[in-house]
Design goal:
Strand 8, helix 11 and strand 9 form a beta-alpha-beta unit. A 6-stranded mixed β-sheet has the order 1-2-13-12-10-11, with helices on both faces. Strands 6-5-7-8-9 form a 5-stranded parallel β-sheet, with helices on both faces. By secondary structure, it is of the alpha/beta class. The protein is globular and about 80 Å long. It is built from 22 helices and 13 strands. The structure holds 6-O-phosphono-beta-D-fructofuranose.
């Protein structure tokens, strides 16, 4: 047993489980006519209904007690003040400072005013975006830029790509493409229709050492040079977003064309920094600032609202309740907005790379679950695919439904029907359908009793399956900023209560290390020691690569 699992607040919650298992969402709603108004909260442009969750007011107060016990309010203050919350890497995590706006007071970190550095880079971005949009920044043949290719992976790709996918295409003044995968297919297919004279490459990498990004950037440069011929033209077509000026210069990008950020910006929390340049180029600096302002609105709410009315806190605690006490392992994110589909992958990285840890900040093994498996996709598509398992499967899968109240693409009855579907899914998961209700329905269809008996078990919906419903007025940069920041802070709440380092990611290193060894073997045939399976597979891949292979 650890300090956390032996603690009074944890024990109280464990005792709550039996009471909650013995009741049902139907019963909880019947017992409390005010359950819906009492279990809704607004934050900035977002509204959350969390009343369809498997908990009562007592459980909620016990979760809040757990948050107090684990000193969440202090942790939030530390996060915002620039304390070294990422202890294993000895760093602050100051993504909130990136979105404070122009009137932000100085924020000192290791003798440097972080706010000042942020504004300098924002000014540099503003000038660059203006030059590209006005046509003052021209390609090597004197034409304006028409296409931007962001080359990056993980946090240097997912956040910006998610934001751009969410926003209406007619807001976008340049075509913005994202290349992340080391699978050459993605770069080849992206480059095929592009004109090198009017294409700008953004090489986005915090470390500027990431294998996939550097290989894609080298291949993009080769493609460019085969057409532009003169290396002097690179300066008009390649810019870098990074913390590593030396590596940027080594790659051959003039550091005057580099937009800096800092080690206190975590990769998956970096879309608000220079990493957002592709967004700014796509939608303009004013809208990029609006994205920052939306995130700032959520930051202010998270920092200032009491825990019991704090949206990221409530969502984080509810997630902990399911994972640590009710036996859930996964969490579905289900936006009812096609443009928000890519947001699921971004939230997945934010959450799973942050909380997929099994030791505490002090390096002690945990004896409780951490890091839910995040997955999902756009509704209504999922309804015709995996929702079967949500409704009648054997796992408890809490879902977050996300619905914009107004569509960016109003078209006949589409948005009303989309809205009806998401509301219906929440109700169906919660209410289910009892044996009596099924019998009555089937009897109404005049089916013979034996057929009713055969069909009955298949048509029962156990119900009692929880969800949050998040409403937003409309997808715009401000709302998106708030939405992304909500999930960032929800993740921080969970990481804090679990006592883990939310901002490191050592778990990605081993695969990278082994890939380098195996790549050397695939290239040069030296033999390293592997297990028989890996050795056998290396052999087959290597034979397939040999020119005489018929594999
Ligand atoms: O390998 C994981 C990771 O380090 C992520 O944390 C990060 O977002 C991604 O790779 C890209 O890293 P970089 O921006 O340094 O290329």
């Amino acid at each position: 047993m650890s300090r956390l699992t032996e603690s009074p607040a944890w024990n109280t919650l464990q005792n709550d489980v039996a009471r909650i298992r013995a009741t049902s969402l139907r019963a909880l709603f019947a017992a409390d006519p005010d359950r819906y108004p009492r279990m809704t909260v607004s934050a900035g442009p977002l509204f959350l209904d969390y009343s369809k969750n498997l908990l009562d007011h007592e459980t909620l107060s016990h979760l809040l007690a757990l948050a107090e016990q684990e000193q969440l309010p202090q942790a939030i203050r530390h996060l915002f003040n620039g304390a070294t919350v990422n202890r294993s890497e000895g760093r602050a995590a100051l993504h909130t400072a990136l979105r404070q706006g122009d009137d932000a007071p100085p924020l000192w970190l290791h003798g440097q005013d972080v706010s000042l550095s942020i504004h300098q880079v924002l000014a540099q971005m503003t000038e660059f975006v203006e030059q590209v949009h006005s046509g003052t920044w021209q390609g090597y043949s004197g034409h304006s830029i028409t296409d931007v290719v962001n080359i990056g992976i993980g946090g240097s790709d997912l956040g910006p790509a998610a934001v751009m996918a969410a926003l209406p295409a007619d807001w976008v003044s340049l075509r913005v493409h994202y290349v992340s995968n080391v699978d050459g297919a993605q770069l080849s297919r992206t480059l095929k229709p592009l004109n090198p004279e009017t294409t700008l490459f953004i090489v986005a990498s915090k470390t500027f050492t990431t294998q996939e990004t550097l290989l894609n950037a080298h291949s993009a440069r080769t493609w460019f040079m085969e057409r532009a011929k003169d290396p002097a033209h690179i300066a008009r077509h390649f810019v870098a977003l990074s913390t590593n000026a030396t590596a940027v210069a080594q790659f051959g990008i003039d550091t005057r064309n580099m937009f800096a950020f800092w080690d206190w910006v975590g990769g998956r929390y970096s879309l608000w920094s220079a990493i957002g340049l592709s967004i700014a180029l796509g939608i303009g600096m004013d809208k990029f600032r609006s994205l920052l302002a939306g995130a700032h609105a959520m930051d202010s709410h998270f920092r200032d609202a009491p825990l019991a009315e704090n949206m990221p806190v409530l969502m984080g605690l509810i997630g902990i309740w399911y994972l640590n006490f009710m036996g859930a392992q996964t969490q579905a994110i289900l936006p009812y907005d096609q443009g928000l589909e890519r947001l699921v992958a971004h939230i997945q990285q934010v959450s799973m790379e942050s909380t997929g840890k099994s030791v505490t900040q002090e390096g002690k093994p945990v004896d409780y679950a951490t890091g839910a498996i995040i997955w999902g996709g756009a509704g209504t598509n999922g309804q015709h695919a995996y929702y079967q398992l949500l409704h009648q499967g054997t796992f408890l899968i809490p879902a977050d439904f996300i619905l914009p109240l107004h569509s960016r693409y109003p078209l006949g009855d589409h948005h009303r029907i989309l809205s009806a579907n998401v509301l219906a899914q929440g109700e169906a998961l919660m209410r289910g359908k009892t044996a009596e209700e099924v019998k009555e329905e089937l009897a109404g269809q005049n089916l013979p009793p034996e057929q009713i008996q055969t069909l009955l078990p298949h048509k029962i919906f156990p119900g009692n399956r929880p969800c949050n419903t998040l409403l937003l007025n409309q997808v715009d940069p401000y709302t998106l900023g708030a939405l992304v920041a909500l999930y960032e802070h929800r993740t921080f709440v969970q990481g804090t209560l679990w006592g883990i380092d939310t901002f490191d990611q050592w778990g990605v290193e081993l695969g990278k290390q082994l890939a380098r060894t195996i790549d050397a073997e695939l290239k040069d045939h030296p033999s390293a020691v592997h297990d028989p399976s890996t050795t056998g597979l290396i052999e087959r891949v290597r034979s397939a690569m040999s020119p005489s292979s018929s594999f």
